[in-house]
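Section 5.1 Outputs to date
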Amino acid sequence: MRKSIAGALAFLIIGSTIGSGVANAHQPLVLSDSETTASKGPLIVDGTLSFAVRAAFTKAGQKKAFRAQFKEGEELAVQYLIVDKKPESALRNKSLPTLVITSPSGSKVTMKFTERTKFFEPYGGVNYLYLGRYNSKAQGGIYSFEITSKSRAAITIAVGEKEGVVGEVIRGTNEAPKPVASSTPKPVASSTPSPKPTAEQSGYTMEKVRANNSEASCWSVIDGNVYDLTKWIGSHPGGRGNILSLCGKNGTAEFAAKHRGDPNPQARLKGFLLGPLAS
């Protein structure tokens, strides 16, 4: 277990590829100031893989949050750590941020500070303090981790114990759709709706696709539709190169070769749809 956390914290100190959206085992996940609720926070797709989640606060009352997904019966392993160095080490427990873990069923657990166990992380040569640990069998679904500050502080929440496996973090545009109310819709004004634009009217021509052929703006054609994959370059679990190779061209064959029959990439692709390719 200590070896697992050591690797996670080592990458946190080095700071490699922070915020890229894709995390290798031991790679850190740094929460941004805008990720203030679980719904806005990043989702760790497999909560059993080793992640070191870093949250820094400048004053009391600030909130940051993230989520992690588990299958029924998997191990939920969470540790709360701080750097064994002032100002963090000088803070009393009552001044440290609170961590509330909410299960898929809605039950809540507040992390308790039960220790101040020193831990030397050999890769970066840094001393840490374990303040609390929580282990249980997970429910199937998504757990929320909400952190609330009581003062200026920076902490690390370690989640998962499996090493050597590439993990995935989903950020931003990949929220689950909200359910549509089943009640009868209210009548609206009887103005004639505008017809949907045709492929020609949409303007997504092959010429425009070829013009968007860089990391700054990456369009690709897949199965007759045009997709803006720019935001997916840094978040693709298979690496940036696989997406960059699709920029500015018809990527149908490459996409099918790698993802044929897999519903997850197809579902993810819908979030980047611009429209049909104009003939």
